[in-house]
Design a protein that fits this description.
The chain is of the alpha/beta class. It folds into two domains: 174 residues, Flavin prenyltransferase-like (Rossmann fold), CATH 3.40.50.1950; 209 residues, 3-Layer(aba) Sandwich (Rossmann fold), CATH 3.40.50. It has 15 helices and 20 strands. It has an eight-stranded mixed β-sheet, with helices on both faces. Strands 3-2-1-4-5-6 form a six-stranded parallel β-sheet, sandwiched between helices. A two-stranded antiparallel sheet has the order 7-8. It is elongated, with a radius of gyration of 25 Å. The model has no long low-confidence stretch (mean pLDDT 92). Bound molecules: cytidine-5'-monophosphate. Cytidine-5'-monophosphate binds next to helix 13, strand 17 and helix 14. The site of cytidine-5'-monophosphate has 15 residues, from helix 13, strand 17 and helix 14.
Amino acid sequence: MQKKILIIITGSIASYKALYLIRMLKEKKFLINVIMTKSAKKFVTPLSVSSLSESKVYDDLFDLTDETEMGHIKLAKMHDLILVMPASCHFIAKISNGFADDLASTVLLASKTKVLIAPAMNINMFNNKITQKNIKYLESLDYSFILGNEGKLACGDYGLGRMAEPEDVLNFINIQFSKTKPLEGIKALVTAGPTHEPIDPVRFISNKSSGIQGYLLAEELILNGAEVSLISGPTNLEIPSNLSNFIRVETAEEMLKACLQKIPKDLFISVAAVTDWKVKANKHKIKKSPSVPKLKLLNNPDILKSISSHKDRPRLVIGFAAETKNLEENAMKKIKQKKCDIIIANNVSKTKNVFGSPMNEVNVMNHKGTFLKIKKMNKKKLAKKIIKEVILPSFN
Ligand code: C5P
C-alpha cells in the first residue's frame, strides 16, 4: 500500500533541501502532504513545494477551507510517518514543551504517528544545553533525530548542526518502513470498557471501568505490528487508529456475540469489566411509586471462559482481575475457573484509585502464581511493559 508521509518544513537556510527530498520521495511513489511554518515560507515558496509534492500545502490552523476539507486532526492521524525537515532550534524547543500555537505544532501534539526530526541550526545553538535537553527529552518520548555530518554551516561556523542530506533522510525513511515489527502477522482481539445492562429503556447497571487500559493495550499491539480487533463497551475514549475492526457493544451478551465472530487465532485479551449480572429488563420505563421495584438479576455469560474453552481457542488467552482483597488468591482461582493462560490482577480497592485513573499497578500471574509484579506507572507505560514482558516472550 502507498505509504503516506507528512513533511513539516520549518524556517531555515536548509529548507530548500526539503524540496530535493520531496522529489525523491515522489519518485519512490510516497504520498506526501506538507505543512509549512510561517518562517519556512520566507525561505521556500509554497508554490514550489506544492508543485513537487503534487498536493496542497497546509499552513494555517485557522483556515476554514482547509479545516473543512482536511482538518488538523485528520492531518495528524492519516500518515504513516511525520518528518520535520529542517527542524529549527525554535521549533524543537516549542514541541518539547508541548506548545500548539500553529498548525505544525498542533498536528504534532495531536498525532501518535512516528516522528523523525532533521535539525538544522548554528553549532552553538545545537550544542547549547537547552537544545540538548530538548532533544534528549524528545528522544525519550520516541522521537528520532537524523543528524547531519560535521561540516561548514551557512553562518560560517563549522561542526554539527548542519542538516542531514536528503539522501540520508531517504535512507532513514526506508529503514523505518522496512523494519519488521515483532507482532507482525499476529491476530489479536481485545475487549475494553464496562458493559451496560439495561433495567428498562433508560436505566442500566454497570461498573466504574473507563476502558483506558484496554484501548491503550490495543494501541500498543498495533504499534508492534499486530492486527487488532477491539470490542468496546460504552466509553468516551477516542477510537485507536489502524484497528482491523472496531465493534461498539452495550451489553455482555452483545460483547460475547462480537467476540465469537472475531475470535482470533493468536491472542485474546479480556480487559473489559464485564458486568457480572444482567437484569430481567422491563420493556417500558419503570414508574416511580412508593414501593421500591424488585430487580431480578441473572448471570451474564462469562466471555473469557467461553473463549478459553472454545474449540478455536487462541494460542494465548489473557484475563484481567480487579480485586479489592486477597488479590493473588482470588486471581489464582480465576485462572483455573476461566481456563486462561495469564491473569493480570489489579487491586481496585478505594485507596488504589484505579478506575478512570491514568495510573495502574498489577501482578501478572500464570498457573504457578505471580511471575511479574509491575509497580505503579501510567497505563500507557504499563501496556508497553505487558507487551514487552508478557506477550512478546509468548510469541517468540
Ligand atoms: O469479573 P471478573 O473478576 O470475573 O473478571 C475477570 C476476567 O474475566 C476479566 O478478564 C473479564 O474481562 C472477564 N469476564 C468475562 N465475562 C464476565 C465477567 C468477567 O469475560 N461475565
